[in-house]
Amino acid sequence: MSNLVVLGAQWGDEGKGKVVDLLSERFQVVARYQGGHNAGHTVYIGERKFVLKLIPSGVLRPGVRAVIGNGVVIDPAALLEEIDALEAAGIDVRGQLCISNRAHVIFPFHRMVERVSEGRPDRVAIGTTSRGIGPCYEDKIARRGIRMADLVDPESLATLYRSLAEDKNTTARAFGVGEEFDYDGILARYRAMADRLRPLVCDTAKLLNDAIGQGQNILFEGAQGTMLDVDHGSYPFVTSSSAAAGGASVGTGIPPTRIHGVLGVSKAYITRVGGGPFPTEQDNPAGERLRKAGNEYGAVTGRPRRCGWFDVPLLRYTGMVNGFDSLIITKLDVLDELDRIPVCVAYRVGGRTVDSMPATQREIDLIEPVYEELPGWKCSTRGISQWESLPPRAKDYLKFLEERTGIEAGCISTGPERNETMILPNSALARLLKMGTA
Ligand code: IMP
């Protein structure tokens, strides 16, 4: 039996959707533990493209139970839209999906609060996805939020909604927001959506713990990436949830003692969307080339992603806070055409090498990355699924990343399709997955 967490080792968009879809074949349950519809996981199956925002990618495997945990924030309209689109594509969402009764609900006025906060001239804009994610988590922590259990209970909803709507009215007036909210209309719409979602809402902590009791295996799916974690990421340029591995326990109600391994997903280079520090960013033709070759545009917002070279100190840091057993390196093929591939191997600040991740934006901005260059392999690795078939210089590049980060690369992805992947037979990853085979 083995329950594993799989999450982003960088700033998100590492290709987790494909990885979770691939691994979910070996698990009976896949559970999301944080974030909301700010995440965008793209999965290609044959000719078909699926963009999943809230629903765990495991839902694409018939029979796999997909769970949205208590740590997730849910916009019911976005969720229903996703359910409808998946059902239209023939996926049995209603047969496979369970939604935590403790997950918090996003309302339209959360987006209004976000616009006010992001637009204020005295605040540094985070460059959020404008989905109301942060303000919903604010209400959760402030203990005035509305949870799925309340949404589907008409009496509870009426009372809590009145109080929350009044709170937002006060905020809107204080900030001179001209926008008029039709609070009664919103309530009526949410009631109608609650009717559709009610059959899917349950105590998912119990469901998951019972599943473990019956010997089932659970894959916990992180959204965003470790550097966007509200505690361990590049604060304040982070999302508002616990994206790091520890969040899997908090965001699902599974004790840490029931989690057996952690897998980090990392691109063979690195990207970021939104504002904030980025030591190895290439805001130049080299970055543009990566963006083009890797089609680096946000799955949710369509924004061009900032691109840069693989950052070893960052990976060592995210490896430390997550305890990665193995890395899954994606998009190796994006580097195919490069003559030389720089890798950041150390950070220097003021002429001194630093061996920990600075905590503040000011300090991170002072980082001067130290690069080593590796020769490119200059041929296509697209679709290669055997280690032996990789060009020697691609193997050297991957071994270099392993050596310098101190974390094994147990799986390599060479294209967006399920079969464009290799799992290395003697890796910790292979051992963990073998344990996971039912
Ligand atoms: P929020 O999550 O919408 O509050 O945005 C906070 C920060 O996280 C912004 O920099 C976003 O661009 C970033 N972010 C949120 N979700 C994702 C994601 O799925 N991939 C990459 N970046 C994300």
Word description of this protein:
- This protein starts with a strand and ends with a helix.
- The relative contact order is 0.16.
- A ten-stranded mixed sheet has the order 9-7-5-2-10-1-11-14-18-19, with helices on both faces. The protein has a three-stranded antiparallel sheet with strand order 16-15-17.
- It is an alpha/beta fold.
- Helix content is 34%, strand content 19%.
- Bound molecules: inosinic acid.
- The site of inosinic acid has 20 residues, from helix 5.
- Inosinic acid binds next to helix 5.
Which ligands occur here?
inosinic acid
- Give the low-pLDDT segments: none
Q: Which structural class should the secondary elements be placed in?
A: alpha/beta
Q: Provide the β-strand percentage band.
A: 15-25%
How confident is the prediction overall: mean pLDDT? 94
CATH architecture of the largest domain: 3-Layer(aba) Sandwich
The CATH superfamily of the largest domain is identified as Adenylosuccinate Synthetase, subunit A, domain 1
- Put simply, the count of helices is 15
What can be said about the biggest beta sheet? 10 strands, mixed
* Overall morphology: globular
Number of strands: 19
Order of adjacent strands in the largest pleated sheet = 9-7-5-2-10-1-11-14-18-19
> How far apart, in Å, are the first and last alpha carbons?
8 Å
CATH T-level topology of the largest domain = Adenylosuccinate Synthetase, Chain A, domain 1
CATH C-level category of the largest domain: Alpha Beta
The amount of helix comes to 25-40%
